[in-house]
Amino acid sequence: MRWVYWIRLYETKFQAGCLVSRMESDWWVYGYESPREIEVFQSRKGRFGVRYVP
Question: How far is residue 54's CA from residue 48's CA, in Å, rounded to a whole number?
Answer without folding.
Answer: 20
